[in-house]
Specification:
The chain contains ten helices and four strands. The protein is an alpha+beta fold.
C-alpha cells in the first residue's frame, strides 16, 4: 500500500473515532426510548384485538348470518350512539367494525366540571340491531393518564404523557435522533478498505479463535454475529424511526385543525 493510501486510511480512522463518539452518545440518549417505542409499538399493532380481549362484553358481539351485509344503516347506528350521550356531547370519531364480531365504536367529547374541562367517551353500538351495548369513559382533559390500557399505551407511545403539544414534538425529535444514530452506525461500520464480504462475515479462524478457549470463543462469536445482524437490520430501523417521526410531526397539525378529536 502506498504512503498516500496509508495517510488516507489514517485520516478515515480518525474520522471514524469521531463518528463513534457521536454514535455512542446518541445511543445513550435515544436508546432507552427505542425500547419504549418498540414495546408500545408492538402492542399497538394489535390494539383492537387486545382491547377486545380485555373488554369482550363491551367490544364484541355474536356474529349474525350474512355478516356485514345485515348491518343496520349508518344513520341508525350513529343516531343510537348520539341518543346515549348528553345533548351537549360532540361526536368526534368513529371506528367501523373490523370483523363480523366487532362493534361499531363512536367517540364523543363532553363538557365537564370544572368549567373548561372535558371528557372523552366511547359508545359501543351493535351494528346488527343499532342498539347501544354500553359506554365507557376514555379520558378526562385534566388527567394525565387515560382510563383504558390501550389508551395508556397510545399516550406513552406518541407523547410520553406530556400532552399533545410538547409530547408529539418530543417524540418527533427522538425519532430524528434515532435516524441519525442509525446513519452514524453505518458510518462507523462502513468498511474502509472496501472489503464488503469480510464486513458481513462472522469470523471463525482469527488468531483469537485459534488460541481461545471456552468463554473467549463464545465472546468473539457473539461480538461478530451481533455486529453483522445489527447492521443488517438498520434499514428497517431507519424506516421505523422515519415513519414515526413523520407521524409525530403531523399529529400537532391534525390536533390544531381538530382540537376536539379526542386522540
Amino acid at each position: 500500500m502506498s504512503l498516500q493510501n496509508l495517510r488516507r486510511l489514517a485520516n478515515l480512522k480518525t474520522r471514524r473515532k469521531l463518528w463513534l463518539e457521536v454514535h455512542l452518545w446518541l445511543g445513550l440518549v435515544a436508546g432507552a426510548t427505542l425500547v419504549i417505542f418498540g414495546i408500545t409499538g408492538s402492542i399497538l399493532v394489535f390494539h383492537q384485538e387486545i382491547d377486545e380481549l380485555l373488554n369482550p362484553k363491551l367490544l364484541t358481539i355474536e356474529a349474525r348470518p350474512g355478516g356485514k351485509a345485515n348491518y343496520r344503516p349508518l344513520e341508525d347506528i350513529f343516531a343510537a350512539g348520539i341518543r346515549a350521550m348528553p345533548a351537549d356531547a360532540k361526536l368526534t370519531f368513529a371506528n367501523y367494525p373490523r370483523n363480523d364480531t366487532a362493534v361499531f365504536r363512536l367517540r364523543f367529547q363532553v363538557p365537564a366540571l370544572p368549567e373548561g374541562e372535558s371528557e372523552n367517551w366511547e359508545v359501543a353500538v351493535d351494528p346488527y340491531t343499532a342498539e347501544v351495548i354500553d359506554r365507557r369513559l376514555m379520558k378526562r382533559s385534566d388527567s394525565t393518564f387515560p382510563r383504558t390500557f390501550i389508551g395508556f399505551v397510545f399516550e406513552l407511545h406518541y407523547a410520553f404523557f406530556l400532552g399533545e403539544r410538547i409530547g408529539y414534538v418530543l417524540v418527533g425529535i427522538l425519532g430524528a435522533l434515532l435516524i441519525i444514530s442509525v446513519l452514524t452506525g453505518l458510518i462507523v461500520w462502513w468498511p474502509l478498505t472496501g472489503k464488503w464480504l469480510q464486513a458481513l462475515t462472522i469470523k471463525r479462524r482469527t488468531p483469537q479463535f485459534r488460541s481461545a478457549q471456552g468463554f473467549r470463543l463464545l465472546h468473539h462469536a457473539h461480538h461478530d454475529s451481533r455486529a453483522v445482524l445489527r447492521h443488517l437490520h438498520e434499514p428497517a430501523a431507519a424506516c421505523g424511526a422515519g415513519s414515526g417521526t413523520v407521524l409525530a410531526g403531523h399529529l400537532p397539525l391534525l390536533v390544531s385543525l381538530h382540537p376536539d378529536c379526542g386522540w
